[in-house]
Amino acid sequence: MGNQLKIGDKIPDFTSKDQEGNRILASDLLGSSLVIYFYPMDDTPGCTTEACAFRDYQRSLQDLDCRVVGISPDGLQSHQKFVEKHNLNFTLLSDEQLEVCKKFDVLNAKEDRSGAKPQIERTTFIVDAKGIIRWIEKPVVVEGHVNRVIEALAAHAFS
């Protein structure tokens, strides 16, 4: 769809809202290592497995000085329910207009189940403290995904 981001690129500027309705700028997320993961839809099997794995490994990620941010096209209300239902302990950003997804080039040509929007290709970026992309998994295989993220973080000093 757009220019595919690669290792060494700076993340695009963007603005979004978190699950509490707070306005978040890309620059607000910098300062330590950052995992930005894009996922198709709240509370679906694969997305729930992935989110719960990030939740369960939050301590390991914090020990590596890393924050996690999940981004999907779901609205704030959906994110709030998803966070509450699964006790998620990290930030979810809403991208209902797919603006952030387009900037990160994570959309594929297929439409979602409702036929309304292109689908998000499950993608994860590890970003250093200055906003430089240091690792990418695209497409993501949910099984073992968070372990691969932690291994990549542990193998390199991304902060």
Q: What is the compact description of this entry?
A:
By secondary structure, this protein is an alpha+beta fold.
Structural overview:
The chain is 28% helix and 26% strand. It has 159 residues and is an alpha+beta fold. The protein has one domain: 3-Layer(aba) Sandwich (Glutaredoxin). Strands 2-1-5-4-3-8-9 form a seven-stranded mixed β-sheet. Strands 6-7 form a two-stranded antiparallel sheet. Strand 8 and strand 9 form a beta hairpin. The protein is globular and about 40 Å long. The protein starts with 14 loop residues before the first strand and ends with a helix.
Number of strands: 9
The fraction of residues assigned to DSSP E strands is 25-35%
Tally of helical segments: 5
Q: Number of domains in the coordinates?
A: 1
Shape assignment:
globular
**Quick one: biggest sheet?**
7 strands, mixed
Question: Major sheet: order of its strands?
Answer: 2-1-5-4-3-8-9
**Architecture, according to CATH?**
3-Layer(aba) Sandwich
Please give the share of residues in helix. Answer: 25-40%
Describe this protein with a few key phrases.
159 residues, 28% helix, alpha+beta, 26% strand
Draw up the topology in text.
Layout: E1 15-18, E2 23-25, E3 33-38, H1 45-56, H2 58-63, E4 66-72, H3 76-86, E5 91-94, H4 99-103, E6 107-111, E7 118-120, E8 123-127, E9 133-137, H5 145-155
Parallel strand pairs: 3-4, 4-5
Antiparallel strand pairs: 1-2, 1-5, 3-8, 6-7, 8-9
